[in-house]
């Protein structure tokens, strides 16, 4: 597979504008491209497709990239098939996945990515790039007919990964606990992506970008920390 992916934990970090923290990586992904097809189906906070697309358009136009929303086309499949690159934004992962299936975009997206089309996701858009959406943090506010996602990479991702707060008296479950529960029923690795972190995938190579380490979980093994520059290519062939 000629993957060319940028999978970002979040669209906005503290003190930065929309996608500003990932500008260098976005520019690299889209080098030589002049347009992006934006898929706004996740609708964070219930924002309209139109307003969400306008937000993305404002960011990309600063970099000389034009943006159109998939909802602006009569035929979303045709829009994906003709796109130079695709960006799926964050919001609710269940809403996003349901709409991807309803619009019949799963297979077209998979086929275009297999042929090298740049794919970029943030948050929910990163979740759906994995094997399933079983490690999303989102509430299941709608019913998706399956948890099977785009499977652009053979592992799951947990964007917005949070570490336990040292000294906290809160006795609730941690993200690590929830991922351990996931691994009682599922084999694929899970990458805990902290805010400001992202994965750059080229073919079968994968690189952790950003200022922070990532926490990687394998079934029946202790969680592992990897820093930017470490070799994490095993994720592409773990199962």
Q: Which residues sit in consecutive blocks of at least 5 with pLDDT less than 50?
A: none
Head-to-tail CA distance between termini: 16 Å
Structural class: alpha/beta
Q: Regarding CATH, which class?
A: Alpha Beta
Proper CATH architecture: 3-Layer(aba) Sandwich
Let me know the number of strands. 11
The side-by-side strand order for the widest beta sheet comes to 3-2-4-5-1-8-9
How big a fraction of the residues is strand? Answer: 15-25%
Task: Look up the CATH topology.
Answer: Rossmann fold
Q: Would you tell me the overall average pLDDT?
A: 95
Query: For the report, how would you describe the main beta sheet?
Result: 7 strands, mixed
Percentage of residues assigned to helices: 10-25%
Question: How many domains, as an integer?
Answer: 1
Reading the helices and strands in chain order gives EHEHEHEHHEHEHEEEEE
Number of helices: 7
Radius of gyration: 17 Å
Protein name: Dipeptidase PepE
EC number: 3.4.13.21
Family: Belongs to the peptidase S51 family.
Keywords: Dipeptidase, Hydrolase, Protease, Serine protease
How would you describe this protein?
One of its GO terms (molecular function) is dipeptidase activity. Pfam families: Peptidase_S51. Belongs to the peptidase S51 family. This protein has 239 residues and is of the alpha/beta class. The chain has a single domain, classed as Rossmann fold (3-Layer(aba) Sandwich). The chain is 24% helix and 19% strand. A seven-stranded mixed β-sheet has the order 3-2-4-5-1-8-9. Strand 2, helix 2 and strand 3 (66-69) form a beta-alpha-beta unit. The longest helix has 13 residues, at 49-61. The radius of gyration is 17 Å and the shape is globular.
